[in-house]
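Retro notes - structure team

What went well: the batch runner handled both jobs without manual restarts.
What didn't: labels got mixed up in the shared folder, which is why I'm recording both outputs here explicitly, each with its sequence directly above its tokens.

Job 1
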Amino acid sequence: ALGLNGTIKNVKIVNANIESSHWAGALVGYIYKGTVENCEVENATINCVKLDDVHNGDKAGALVGYANDDSASLIKNCKASNSTVTAGRDAGQIAGAAKAANVIGCSATNVVVTANDECTGANVRNEVIGRLL
């Protein structure tokens, strides 16, 4: 988790293989009032699977699983490429769940997002953000 006023900046992750049951991303699973800036993920596999009713394979992205909907949870100028994201719900190319206004200047190239049928499959989208908060 990235906490109060923390920043992750100028990091590149290549060939990550992440498996989680909740809040999955190659860079950070959960942002709470922090910033991810100028970061890149390439050739990553993110797989978010159901463990139980609380950890149900949700909120997965190539970089970030969940960015708290507070205005201080920012993802800026980041990119993902040649990666896959699989989850039960709330999955996107950059972030699984985030506010659109908090994801600025981000892009994805050849990032495929799919549902794994372990939850509702809601908000699993081949877009920068899976679930808009």
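Job 2
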Amino acid sequence: LAVFRIFDKDRAIADPNNTTKSVAGGEIQSQGLEAEVNGQIRPGWEMTAGYAYTDFKYLKVPVNAVTTGTPKHNVNLWSKHTWRDGAFKRWSVAGGLRSMSKTYATSGTAANPIRIDAKGYTIFNAQIGYQISPTTTASLTVNNLFDKTYYEKVSSTSRQNFYGEPRSVMLALRTAW
């Protein structure tokens, strides 16, 4: 569990006269808490859960350059089950999610500010694995399982707006010696 308060002075923001450039933008305060718990619920079943709450506000900044930057709510959950005996011995299956609340940014001129909203999103991931030997495992992981289109970050009308990663598949072989 962590509680925090951060003061950020002279943060780079879009220049009100030229949105392709940045200027020092005043003072920002972020405060909130983060909590994480992980462990083994029972033999073969592991779980990790995390939550972060961030209150983000500008203390001194031009009205046309406001961005939340960080989502107010962030939830992460991952669960993995590994069979220790029976027909599925040495196999594992896992799944989880990452959920973020909405964010936004404003840009444009002081006389004509434009607001850009990024909706909140939830991404699901899944994994299947096999314990080949005591030191070697193979796994197949699918991130963004449902291929959701979402904005990972929004900043202005002209730059630094990034889509989140589309569905990806990774086959991994891990060994220790």
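One thing worth noting from job 2: The two ends are 34 Å apart (CA to CA).
We'll revisit the folder naming next retro.
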